[in-house]
Specification:
The protein is mostly beta strands and 369 residues long. The protein is 8% helix and 33% strand. A hairpin with an 8-residue loop joins β4 and β5. The two termini are 36 Å apart. 32% of the residues are buried.
């Protein structure tokens, strides 16, 4: 199969399969834009980010937050809105706590970000937040984590909602907590008040595959699955597993024109603009069947304000009749009308001529006009 990219953007393909084992051709296209100044329109960045082939992390995989997730997910049910960035104190004046918010269309999420706080002597409350001008937002520093006691190394308690976080200590004795960091973020109306509570981890970044939110959709991989369905998805698998944003950061597939607003997520304080509009068609040229033409859907919106950019990823998950060998060519991007005319002629067993002069020339000796 020949893959032709006419979009002018990074694009690629892979194979997946649906819940019944049918092969899927997965096409992904990515565009990176500069975050505009207030009132301006986003423009394509000079340097386009390549498609992410494998999950990337802030540290050791499985023990740190996901930074960027692969762009080759087989299918998504909604659009993920995620942000890797920092909280900024308004006007550059050091603050102990800052409210941050992110809005895309009907989705809006906000929470508090604090300066570093540490446990003091176990008879005293935690220290007050240290003033900051900029501090990173990450699930590494959101409420959660794994706790153990040095005297009982085999005993581990993990906060399933965020296994890589900070501040969850149901096992460690109080004296051992002196100097330990608390979480840097918290819900607006539910401040973190102890080390064993059920607090919601607050971040804008991708949710790890080992978070409860994700793996509860992955399905059951037991002996029955091994004997009856492997390697096909389990019967209780849901494509919700492929969503890398939490529920409150998922929206319907973006069409373009949706309002965007970032508050205290950049030195400018408030940034607002609209989602760019772009159509990304895909044409599958079949060998013996009818060609398939579809539009990719925009299902991933990644903000990186600290880098002055954001990326949109479009995806098409196309079921194949049998396998990839039935396709002769896959074309991404707008095609000229002449291509469709030529393709129709080929299907009808006729010769296509781009002009009358070309047709006349073909009937003369040597093909001369």
């Amino acid at each position: 199969m020949e893959f032709v990219n006419l979009s002018g953007l990074p694009a690629g393909w892979t194979l997946g399969f649906d819940q019944e084992g049918r092969e899927l051709l997965v096409v992904a296209v990515k565009a990176t834009y500069q975050i505009p100044s207030e009132g301006q329109i986003p423009v394509l960045a000079e340097e386009q980010c390549e498609l992410v082939k494998a999950d990337e992390f802030t540290g050791e995989p499985g023990y740190s937050a996901t930074l960027r997730e692969t762009d080759y997910s087989p299918r998504k049910l909604k659009c993920d809105v995620v942000l890797n960035g920092s909280a900024y104190a308004p006007h550059g004046r050091p603050a102990k706590a800052v409210e941050v918010s992110l809005r895309v269309g009907s989705m809006r999420k906000s929470f508090w970000v604090f300066g570093d706080r540490r446990w003091q002597d176990f008879l005293l409350p935690p220290s007050g937040p240290e003033p900051f001008v900029r501090t990173e937002i990450s699930y590494d520093r959101a409420y959660g984590g794994a706790d153990r006691n040095e005297d009982e190394p085999d005993r581990v308690a993990t906060y399933a909602e965020n296994p890589v976080g900070t501040g969850y200590h149901p096992i460690r004795r109080a004296p051992a907590l002196v100097g330990e960091l608390l979480a840097n973020s918290a819900e607006r109306r539910h401040p973190i008040s102890d080390i064993t509570g059920r607090f919601k981890p607050m971040s804008f970044g991708p949710v790890g595959r080992n978070f409860l939110f994700r793996y509860k959709h992955a399905g059951t991989y037991d002996q029955k699955w091994l004997e009856e369905r492997a390697p096909i998805w389990p019967t209780d698998f849901s494509y919700a597993y492929c969503q890398c944003a939490p529920d409150d950061q998922q929206v319907q597939f973006l069409q373009g024109g949706e309002p965007v607003e970032l508050m205290n997520l950049s030195p400018e304080g408030v940034l607002s603009f609209e989602v760019p509009s772009r159509k990304v068609p895909v044409i599958c040229v079949a060998r013996n069947q009818q060609d398939v033409e579809t539009l990719c859907v925009c299902d991933t919106f990644l903000f990186e304000p600290d880098l002055g950019r954001f990326s949109l990823t479009w995806r098409a998950s196309i079921p194949l009749r049998r396998n990839l060998f039935e396709l002769k060519q896959v074309v991404v991007g707008e095609l000229p009308r002449s291509w469709y005319s030529k393709r129709r002629a080929q299907r009808a067993g006729k010769t296509y001529y781009a002009s009358l002069a070309e047709a006349v020339a073909s009937r003369r000796p040597g093909g001369r006009p």
